[in-house]
Amino acid sequence: MAQYLPLLPEIVFTILFLIYFVIGLFIKNRQITGIMVMTISLITSFILFRADGTAFKNMFVADNFSQSLKLVFLLSLFLCTLISMRYEKIKDSIFYEYSLLMLLSTLAMMLIVSSRDLIPLFLSVEFMSLCLYLLSGFIISDLKSNEASLKYYVLGSFASAIFLFGIAAIYGVAGTTTFYGISDFLKNNSGITIYHYIGTVAIITALAFKAGCAPFHQWSPDVYEGAPTTITAFMSVGPKAAALGALGRVIFESFSFSPQLWLASLVFVALLTMATGNILALRQNNIKRLLAYSSIAHAGYVMLAVIACSQEGLNSIVFYMIIYAFMNIGAFAVVLALPDGESIEGYRGISFLNPSLSLCMLAFLFSLAGIPPFGGFIAKFLVFKSVIHSGYIWVAVIGILFSILSAYYYLRIAVKMFFSNAQEQIQSKYLIPSNLKVAIALNAGLILVTGVIPGIIM
């Protein structure tokens, strides 16, 4: 049984999922359903770091990197379930199925970051993607949601084909799909052929697509805008962390001896992603689209840590994604809390109507922009530090410049909140559901604490 100890979190999560799968059929109250899902998330989180080691001939690993990213997925599941509990667009009659899909996609993400073989990695990515295709089109009567799901499915299938092609190319030259096998082959064979380049670039392309990196980002704004807001919040954190974590592990453990295979393409993708996300976000008036382009830009920052190809880079990916979960889901919770939260005009003068909500949103925006003393500043600092230590100073400088540029579109919202008159239609008193109040306060507190005392999660 000791050989299965590294899989302990996945086994416990699956058992709890099956219990929920049966019991949930008889529970009609969505509050109880939501509490059950959050309980599964909490129980699994508590046993995460009790598992350590490898299984299945080193194809599965439970190390600090994978377990920390699993914590991000479980936090994301917990917080997104919390903000979904009174979300009216998800009807009571389908909340059970909605929760099942979120649980299954979380399990898939956990398997992704523990994979040390391209075949299980591909299968786990497809498992996650199938759940997300369904979630993004979950509101059947909403045409935008249907369109988002269809676009995501078509483009995602294309990326899957590229991924499979890349695996075939690598297997053709290395004769193995395990990370350590590929690494040993590249270490002992100096000759690089066109098939090495094709395979490596195809794998990077597929994982960059799943992370929403440019130039494979076209699906991201439409899907984020069309999907229900709670699902958009869920998709903006977990799947992105899973894809970037997998990319970081593949590069670090398989291709670190042959940087000529991936360095130029990764630097190009990272710079283009930061440029695309930040520049296109400047003109957005829809907050969900703005946060979609913002998430593209943040994927570019995390990609810098992948380029570093070091343990320091992997650690900074983990820290960044934990903070990103808090600040991004917190921002989406504010979008849900306001009557017209999806439009930038809906934020006019809300500081006069609800000062505490405005201050929390300001904290999320400052953190996303990387302004101290919030966690986002520390996260960006660690990423830039890792890439500088790896010798790519000019890349870090460009990243810092784009980070400064991003402050413009985040502060646009802050200006609307604090320096504009409130709209007449929201001047009347409105009530924020208690679950959103808890989520907003919790996330705001965490990004402040992690910014002031980053050592608590480092």
UniProtKB/TrEMBL annotation:
Entry GO terms, CC: endomembrane system; plasma membrane
Tagged with keyword Ligase: no
Subcellular location: Cell membrane; Endomembrane system; Membrane
Segments crossing the lipid bilayer: 6-27, 34-51, 71-87, 94-113, 119-140, 152-174, 194-214, 226-248, 260-281, 290-311, 317-338, 350-371, 391-411, 438-457
Membrane topology: Multi-pass membrane protein
Domain NADH:quinone oxidoreductase/Mrp antiporter transmembrane: 115-405
Catalyzed chemical reaction(s): a quinone + NADH + 5 H(+)(in) = a quinol + NAD(+) + 4 H(+)(out)
Molecular functions per Gene Ontology: NADH dehydrogenase (quinone) (non-electrogenic) activity; NADH dehydrogenase (ubiquinone) activity; quinone binding
Any one GO biological process: ATP synthesis coupled electron transport
Keywords assigned by UniProt, alphabetized: Cell membrane, Membrane, NAD, Quinone, Translocase, Transmembrane, Transmembrane helix, Transport, Ubiquinone
Pfam family, one: Proton_antipo_M
Known function: NDH-1 shuttles electrons from NADH, via FMN and iron-sulfur (Fe-S) centers, to quinones in the respiratory chain. The immediate electron acceptor for the enzyme in this species is believed to be ubiquinone. Couples the redox reaction to proton translocation (for every two electrons transferred, four hydrogen ions are translocated across the cytoplasmic membrane), and thus conserves the redox energy in a proton gradient.
Family per similarity comment: Belongs to the complex I subunit 2 family.
NCBIfam families, A to Z: NDH_I_N
Protein name per UniProt: NADH-quinone oxidoreductase subunit N
Classification of source organism: Bacteria, Pseudomonadati, Nitrospirota, Thermodesulfovibrionia, Thermodesulfovibrionales
